[in-house]
Design a protein that fits this description.
Blueprint: H1 22-31, E1 37-39, E2 53-55, H2 62-75, H3 81-87, H4 91-98, H5 109-116, H6 122-141
Helix pairs in contact: 2-5
């Protein structure tokens, strides 16, 4: 979650103004094993019931973190090439930007960590852990 998921900000989206289901939906996700990560300056942006891991970034560094995530997905083949080809425009330029072809700077997690200094190195460790889980799942699907 970037910027958290404060329930007060979701009260008109899931279920309309009459039925507020997001709290129960999120708690159900947590109980079923979904792990939440709250990348936000505020720990309170995620409900306590979610037991979200909190990574407070340096203000203004969200983009560096997102680029590190995108680079990690790309370099590990975890992106959906067919979806990107069918429903987006310009992914080839974005991929080139991530991999240094445009400015000589690889936008990998190390680059993002240098910019963010998020939570004493947990950012890079977290990415490595989550990528290994995604790679295992991808192998299971094949």
């Amino acid at each position: 979650m970037f910027g958290g998921l404060a329930v007060r900000n979701t009260q008109v989206s899931d279920g309309g103004v009459a039925r507020h289901r997001i709290r129960n939906n999120l708690v159900s996700c947590a109980k079923s094993g979904v792990k939440f990560i709250n990348i936000s300056p505020l720990r309170s942006d995620a409900m306590a019931e979610l037991e979200a891991e909190w990574l407070p970034p340096v203000p203004g560094s969200d983009t560096a973190i997102m680029l590190g995530l995108a680079h990690t997905l790309l370099s590990n083949g975890l992106h959906d090439v067919e979806f990107l080809r069918t429903y987006t425009t310009g992914f080839d330029k974005f991929a080139a930007y991530l991999t240094d072809a445009t400015d000589g700077v690889v936008k990998d997690p190390a680059h993002g960590f240098i910019i963010t200094l998020a939570a004493g190195g947990l950012y890079t460790e977290l990415l490595q852990d989550r990528v290994s889980v995604l790679l295992q799942r991808k192998q299971q699907i094949r």
